[in-house]
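Internal ticket #5521
Category: modeling
Description: The requester needs a full-assembly model to guide mutagenesis choices. All entity lines are attached below as received. Residue total reported by intake: 940.
Assigned to: D.W.
Attached entities:
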Amino acid sequence: MTAKLRQRNNVSDARKLVVANLSKSFGSTPILKDVSFEIEEGEFVCFLGPSGCGKTTLLLCLAGLESPSAGEIYKNGQTITAAPPSQRDVGIVFQSYALFPNLSVYDNIAFGLVNLKWSKDKIREAVGGLVSLLSLEGHANKYPSQLSGGQQQRVALARALAVSPSLLLLDEPLSALDAQVRARLRGEIRDLQQRLKITTVMVTHDQEEAQTLADRIVLMNAGRIEQIGTPWQIYNEPATPFVADFMGVSNLLSGVVRAQDEVACDQFALHCKTQDHPVGTKVQLLLRPEDIAVVAPPNMPEQAPTNLLNATIVKIEHLGAVVRAHVMNPSGLKLKVDISKRDFDPVRHAVSQELSVTIAPTDIRLFTE
Amino acid sequence: MNTQSLKGLSVSLFARSKPQIMERSDWLVRWVCVAYCVAALCTIVLPVGALFLRSLNNADGAYVGLQNYLTYFGTSALFDSFLNSLLVSLVTATIVVPMAFAYAYGLLRTCMPFKSFFRGVALIPLLIPGVLKAIALVYLFGNQGLLREWLFGHPLYGPIGIIGASVIWTFPFAVLIMLTALQHVDQRLYHAAAVLKTSAWRTFLHVTWPSCRYGVTTAFLVVTVSVFTDFGIAKVIGGDFRVLATDIYKEVVGQQNFEMGAVISVMLLIPAVLVFVLERRVASKQVAQFTGRSLPYTPKPSGWRDGVFLGWCIAVTVFIASMLGMAQFASLVKFWPYNLSLTFAHYEFEIEGVGWMNFSNSIWMATLAASFGTLIVFIGAYVVEKARRDIGLRKVLQLFMLLPMAIPGLVLGLAYLIFINTPGNPAGWLYGGMAILVISTVTHLYSVPHLTCLTALKGLDREIESVGLSLNTSVTRMLTQVTLPVCLAALLDVWLYIFLCAMTTLSAVIFLYSSDTKLASIAVIHIDETGRVASAAAMAMLLVYVCLAVRLAHHLIAQKVLRKFQPWRTS
């Protein structure tokens, strides 16, 4: 154990945030179970997961607002596990904004700077800069209750950024906003983070938000980390069926490896890369709807492709850029298939029409069940 | 058992939990919590404990076990007063709750005019000492009363009088509780019921009633226990009808029998505590009924319904006004009912031990209690609400702060009397001074202001404190810059509440005053005992006018202060 700690301490040259074997329980209920990861300086990391997975508790531990039950947090090689929030140099933004209702926008943003005993002129200059940075011009003398949700959240951001923290913590900052404002503020937060190069951790349950914002995603489930990776890795190389399912619509099938590169699912066999899964193991197969292609009669290839399935359309969903067809093959297997808008034909792609679908063996991912 | 699970076992056995992260403010909060616990021990637990012990002693101070209780149950006259108390309190609650329900329903669920006026009227009885309500009833329905025929020859003195005066006295409490209960309903439930073609009766049964039945239960319990433990009204208008509260007074003041007084106090305390526990359980169930997303109810006009409720509210108003008018008139009449010429003679209080000094004592005491009380209550509520650590300590403290609700004023007063006169008590010097009156009053009234402050503090996001911490803000800056300004309105309300209650309080101080600190509310009782009811009415009316004046001043000051210090609210 001590050897391990010393080893951790040796990374002090790197300006990193290191979380090592962190656990937290409330009474006998475990919230975080042995969580470890590292965050590089200037990185934007999202804690992503369903509600109750412990992501907010983890954020509060980073802020010093919760005390972990076990494990350590290191910043620049030094432990900060027991440091109170005031000594951690963090800025924090909550879903509820948590603005001081009795103070004007100006005084809210200046609040932390007054604590640092800055001179009035310096404060005015700094607040002015933040007001224009977050496009809050003309609102400085208003009270929080006079602003829209999006504006209030900008003020909360400005207040957190004013003291130039080395770590910015965002606890579902966009969840209380409506869709359009959310999308715009999302872009602004990313721009701001890139410009200020500030290490940022954001908690969210929205996988799309995490994918668009994060350099890396920490995907959590039931107090554990399921996978850490870039948005591309998390989506395309999910480590577990949970990750695959959480990151988007997917078809998950059960099967048994029958031979090298062949898996038996119920009535039919699918060709895929079985890699090191030995023959006879039960596996789960992930087929992304967008990887499945429709090969209906007119554009039927001359040579029948591998993994060809005949199916009937049972439902059509229009999602804007794509049309999602729910299809069922004669043996009762149900699949979701995405058809791009360009390929969509309202006559042939209608309910109870028959079609053939195919998927390349390399596009199927296998998980041991 | 394999090595793996052994290792796991040893880890879970020997892994010590990490110490919690403590900010300087967390330490401060912890010590304040401890201080409040000690204070609660000295002002509640020890005195009530002393009272219990006294009930187990004989007059010589020797321990006699349950002997006094056996004597109590053996004396039928004493036990009868227990049943009498129960009877009047249950009858009062049964009358008041429907009255208040109809009144509150009219205010919230109809489109009758002058709603804010009627809302104010319902609260007027709060400004009137209980004793004055009894006196007014004497003038209206007593042996020489204006409307004595209305009682068909039944005597006013006794249960009828106690119930009548108690109904008026408890009406505002019941209305306030019903207002809260009826406010908390989602209009969309009514929309849903209407769309499903639900009859008015079924809608009432399945939408209105479920949303307010906890309120009705609470009102019933609060009224019952208030009447059960009240002293002043029964003293003035009870006649030969004995109730527990007057029994205690007679035993202690009349016969100096502290032991029997303590026994009866325990008989008063036990039902009060039971009701308190019941009421807390009901209150905890009420919580999640109405969320921030609910749509508040807005009534639609309906001629006959609005008319009926307007009529009811007018009737209540007329009754309250005639009662006040009668009391005022009686205090100015030379010799009711024979010589109706007007005079100020009754305001001269030429009675031994009574005078204008009592009146200034009352104002002085109420001001001290309100000012210190507000400060103490706010700090207490602040640490209970904001303590991030020490969850156990917080819970204990919260219980202590609600406990005064369960202890009748008379019991608390007697407990103080016994406790402070215990030989060797270092606080013995307090006896007979103003401080003990202030302490007992603040303790007695503690719970309601505490809940008001808690509600105000909960209005601030919990995360606000976290933001303050992450921005390295000191406790004092957080308090003076954010928390206090936001809670200003609640603090002014708390001050007013304590002041008004302290002006009219009787039960918590009746055993604790000295000739130098006698309060006006006590003087009213003493004047009444001499038979000069007009003078008693005069003294009580003075209290009413002070309360009215302070209420108005509070309104004006609050408006000004809030406009100056809470500009964000006006938007």
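Resolution: model delivered.
Comment from assignee: The first helix of chain A runs from residue 2 to 9.
Ticket closed.
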